[in-house]
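Data card: per-record layout.
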Amino acid sequence: MRNNQLFIIMLLSFLLVGIIFDVMAQDAIRLQSVRGVDRRILVAVPPFCPDTPDLSGVAVELSEVMAYDLEFSGLFILLPRERYPVGFVALDKDVASINFDAWRATKAEFLLYGFVKKEDGKYVCQFRLLDLLSSNQVVGKEVRVDISNSRLASHRFSEEVIAFVDGIPGSGTSQICFTGIVGKNKELFIADYDGANVKQITEHGSISIKPKVSPDGMKIAYLSYKDRYSFLYVFDRLTGKVTPLSKEVGLNSAPSWFPDGNRLAMTLSKDANMEIYIRNMDGSNPVRITRNKDADTSPCISPDGSRIAFVSDRGGNPQIYVMGVDGSDARRISYQGGNSYDPAWSPDGKMIAYVVEQRGEGFEIYVMDADGANPRRLTNSYGNNESPTWSPDSRHVMFCSTRNGRWELWAVNVKTGEERHIPNLKMEAQGPSWGPRMKSDSK
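The structure for this 443-residue chain is written out next.
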């Protein structure tokens, strides 16, 4: 009798293990089927389910943020509301109640389920990415966020959904810093990458421009005329303190962070010519690394800290060059005919975005491989397109544009060329700098 019971237990254990491995194998096959495909994936993102009626507005906002992030990535197409299953009203708290057959009939590949409740003064959001082909959950997460920033929950999970599909997380939790025009002044602002949660961070009553967010996102180097001259400063987001970075005689401009966040490259003219220097974040130990009779400006440090892209007119007109961090082995990499400015290295180190002055057409955004190969134009619009900056996932370039008669922020998908206006800013905006993803403390 005991032997029979032992046999049954062992048999059930083997069957259970087999089922688990079968599900894992199905998920692995499914993952291979969606990664690397050169098409957009149809996903349904219906309004999320609130725990109580008073959270209905929050649930709707969370689903809208999720939908925006997924569509913005360029990897997904949203299932239109009119194609939802007949009679569908809202998601239920019970995931088991989902009619997978009805959702499969819509031709969507995935359904994104969300549930939100309030607990201990926070929003607790439960997200599930459901594969409609297999009826399995392929990604799931519980995220706790402050009530003051419910949107962050969707931003966090969208990064994981995008990573599941493409292997690289999205940029949902990232923020941007930019110059906003306030009357006759220009001040610095920060916002979520989608333009939400705008906050002014400087009140100098002057001109503050060219912000550059540090690698950890917690400091911002920028140029300001608040003390009458073009000096460089660093704003600490934790303390709100502003400290001088460079107050040399002449021009102080174009700060660029090293990956360690302790040093910056910049343009100084203290020796009667615009040259590139490196100095510590506290302003100490300036080291000149270019020595050229022509102007060398706009340094941009490579993600690995080994090279610098910069602008020089040593060849007769401004073009993009690359050199070692000690100033050695400088070589030109831009050959588009017009003047080239403002290089920006992609976080993955593979590409450089830059601005080309098109004769009779204004300024346009281009990208090329980091060695100068395969240059191509990203923008084609009236007006000027300037100040390129990369998303943390290297999928998008954000820039400022006058195509609509005023300075606005736009983003372009580097792969598809799709351009998107950054909403919600409600002011003229220039010179964006795209910061890193926020660190997660969620489950």
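Known properties of this structure: Residues 175-434 form a domain with the Neuraminidase fold (CATH 2.120.10.30). Helices lie at 2-34, 56-72, 100-104, 151-166.

See the next section for split statistics.
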